[in-house]
Amino acid sequence: MPANKEIKSILIIGSGPIVIGQACEFDYSGSQAAKALKNEGYRIILVNSNPATIMTDPEMADATYIEPLTVTFLERIIEKEQPDAVLPTLGGQTALNLSMELSAKGVFKKNNVRLLGASAEAIEVAENRWKFKEAMEEVGIQTLNATYARSFEEGLDAAKNIGYPLMLRPSFILGGGGTSVVENNTELNIKLKDAFAASPTQEVLIEESVYGWKEFELEVMRDSDGNGVIVCGIENFDPMGVHTGDSITVAPIQTLSDKEYQAMRDEALLCLDTIGIATGGSNVQFAVNPENGERRIIEMNPRVSRSSALASKATGFPIAKFAALLAVGYSLTELKNDITGSTPASFEPVQDYVVVKIPRFDFPKFPSTDDVLGTSMQSVGEVMSIASTFTESLTKAIRSLEIGKTGIRNIDNRFINLDKHQLQKEIHTPRPRRIFAIFEAIRRNWAIEDIAEFSKIDLWFLREIEKSFGVNPESTPSMILKMFGWTDEDLDNKDSKKDLENNRVYKLVDTCSAEFVSQTPYLYSTNGTTNDDTASKQKKVVVIGSGPNRIGQGIEFDYCCVHGVSSLKENGFEAIMINSNPETVSTDYDTADKLYFEPLSWNEVRAVLVREKPDSVIIQLGGQTPLKLAKKISAAGFKIAGSSLEVIDSTEDRYLFQKLCVSQDIKQPLSKIANNENELINSVNEIGFPVLLRPSYVLGGRAMRVVKTKEELENYLDILSSADEDGNPFKSGPLLVDQFLTEAIEVDVDLISDGKEVFIAGILEHLEPAGVHSGDSTAVIPPYSISKSMIKEIQDKSTKLALGLNVKGLLNIQFAIKDNELIILEANPRASRTMPFVAKVTGNQIIKAGTLLMLGYTIEQIKSQTNYLKKSTKKIAIKKAIFPWSRFPAEDTMLGPEMKATGEVLGIGKDFGTALNKAYAAAGVEIGSKQKGVFVTLSDSEKPNFVEVIKKYAELDFSIYATEGTGRFLSKNNIDSILVGRADDESPTSLTIIDDKLISIVINTPTFANEYTDGWKIRRLSHKTGVAVVSSVREAEAFVEAFILQEKVLDDMEAIQNVS
Description:
Elements: E1 9-13, H1 25-39, E2 43-48, E3 63-66, H2 71-81, E4 85-87, H3 92-105, H4 107-110, E5 114-115, H5 120-127, H6 129-138, E6 146-149, H7 152-162, E7 166-170, E8 180-182, H8 185-198, E9 204-208, E10 214-222, E11 228-236, E12 249-251, H9 258-275, E13 280-288, E14 295-301, H10 306-315, H11 319-327, E15 354-360, E16 381-387, H12 390-400, H13 420-428, H14 434-443, H15 448-455, H16 459-469, H17 478-483, H18 494-502, E17 504-508, E18 522-527, E19 540-544, H19 555-570, E20 574-579, E21 594-597, H20 602-612, E22 616-618, H21 624-627, H22 630-635, H23 645-652, H24 654-663, E23 671-674, H25 677-687, E24 691-695, E25 705-707, H26 710-722, E26 735-739, E27 745-753, E28 758-769, E29 779-781, H27 788-805, E30 809-818, E31 821-828, H28 835-842, H29 846-854, H30 859-865, E32 876-882, E33 903-909, H31 912-922, E34 933-937, H32 947-955, E35 959-962, H33 964-972, E36 978-979, H34 992-995, E37 1001-1004, H35 1014-1025, E38 1028-1030, H36 1033-1044
Parallel strand pairs: 1-2, 1-4, 2-3, 4-5, 18-21, 19-20, 19-22, 20-21, 34-35, 34-37, 35-36, 37-38
Antiparallel strand pairs: 6-9, 7-8, 7-9, 10-11, 10-13, 11-12, 12-15, 13-14, 15-16, 17-18, 23-26, 24-25, 24-26, 27-28, 27-30, 28-29, 29-32, 30-31, 32-33
């Protein structure tokens, strides 16, 4: 059936900020769908709150709204744009839930908007755990023994009937939020409350636990003619009980017989038919009992899912694109596979290789949290590898993680000295490090059957790994060694190392096991004798990507890589991408001219460079990962595009940078360099407390601390002594010891330079005081409180520094303003995480322009030959960070110099107040939704600073609640307040006023806290209930402006195409 031309305009709802469980895979799917539908002639209206996404670039849609993803804002946009249809299945659980709310409220019916892909009824059946169970059982698909609970009491009764262990599954959730395995009554009382809190519909399925069963996922597509295909089968290496997002996964499925697979396939297709999924992609999950092969369906997601991105990259099959086109009426037989250019989409992909995905975790940033893995997802990113065997692919995936491991045979110092009982415990307990404990047990020749019993990991996987440890490198051909996961780091013989490298070939991901010619150069390395393609002799540039998402190096850097590749293609260069992240737009099959899906470790990168012989290599776009390769790239004779190695060293080497700043009359804080713990102690003693400790060559403030006392320094040293190789900051280079500036304003500057001229793209003012990492801060563009003379000084000194460094390309500079004096904190000659935000709100394509500057263009040439730098805006834009506190319930929400945010949202408005109001709303704090109350709890030293701002709240008729000490102080300053007790006192307390929605904002100056202190409890509860928490006068004053202008917010909405 051809596309439905009765539909003229389609609304696509995005997934919002990057959070655990819903990351950049939805930027990939949304971008792919928007492009496909726009190419079909539909008018695309796109709504998302995340500025660091390709899908919110102006050219991706006809009208793009970067606005809060709430029912209120979406209803106003629908009224304004009048779309004919909405596609709810491409923005993760966020878009699905919002669509259901809009449908229930009657917004779609009122505005004659139809749902594409899946009806509201079908979504309800799929997402409502009990209705799904009933629907499956009606058609003979077996489910687990379970009861549905709509209240806490019903849940307690259900648990008694089912017995322990049991599983809690809230309805309408993402990333396993609120799910858990319960072993006893004590756990039930705690976890059941969390489950109900996680479900927006207050419904929880209580079911028998199948912890230890095998887990499988099928990515399924269906069209309106009833055709269905299984795009990819995925098997979890880890058993049931570990969230699939936190599990190592393998494709295609390895341990099922063909008969078992076909039966599972039939049930997956029947599941979609039964639920009523009209068209598009869905993810269906099964559990299989390893003892007898019994199969149970666990759940299905009636939308493009996290695994859809993995399945797309694993097979080359563009799931999101096809899902969008199927939704407007096409059939699978009418759509051509872009990879082959000849086969229809109804041909199921076939893999003649093995794909392994390993999640990436950031537990060191959350030290109060145990890193035991469970049913609630906690990983922040993932890597994917492709090779001819499972063990070779597993080694490549381990290398891709960027955690200092070289592969299967890498000896892990954490386990080498453990006794048998300790190692057995490590294998039994699912943690990110468990795979390395298994390697150690196999190295010790433990019985594979025992390891399988301890871990519940299938014997087949363990036996394959065992083969790697059972071969003699002296008598085994190098090709076989590579198939078993060996790398040249595992070999001592130079000739063997050379043979291993000589056997490296590049194969195409072609969806059809080489049965048809592939039209897209999407490559992976493996062992063999022949390559599937050849390197061209065109003028070419290699872009090194950013690798797995992690806190500090996330989607922003992938955005920069994609813009860099686009700039190369638009200006006549062959663009070659190397990356290992399956979630991203940069690894889509049609982003670059050629894609190498490879680890970003030196051996793999060098092999690509030797093969392609590029004119230059771009390392400025992918964050810190490519910069770490700079010296090796240069030493190997390849040209680094733009800023030289000397420029990088001049910013990272404290002595060189200090010398440059002195020559440019740019003031720095007092600083020292420490190469070990003794030098660190001496440096701190010389500078005096407080100090800021910063490791070299890291992103996201990794291991960065503000140390105010001798006790805090001793605590930091204790952490260093117990840190593993990835967690010890001295491993990356010297530790930088800086004087910490109190009561200062931080400023970010993003600019580009050709070495002679500088273009300042944006100056961003932070709302939070200095000491909060820039990635966690609220940033405002243009600056709202800095004087014109200071802005002029910032511009002048930024220009002098860029020219003094001889920057060619991108530069980010961070300043602090203290007592009206400008002090430089650091400079980074690469893309920054704020550059996508700056580019989005100003309309100036600074990353595209910066890419050309790296290749020798001048700013004047770019201005005259492109439209990259020709925009301006009068709007105010505010970036607000998003944090994963709900996934790490033991952590305090206090911010500091080490970055904790997983994502960001954007508020744009004509006024500062409206922009901040939107930023708060997008971050989950809807100003005006609660009563006009402010809760004030201040440290003694800060109390005098807040008198005037609290008077402003009183003038606005806010009810002022205060703790006893703060209340007495306010009374002395003629400010009336309502006293509240401590958290454990009788009501009203600091917690009950938050729970009862009596306040809109908490003003809290935090001190060191743990989960037993009132401050910790106040901040945690505020985050959970959507109450703003501020800790500085500037933030409190800003909230007042956002509150005053709340009535204007819905009238201040404009498509991004009209903003700049």
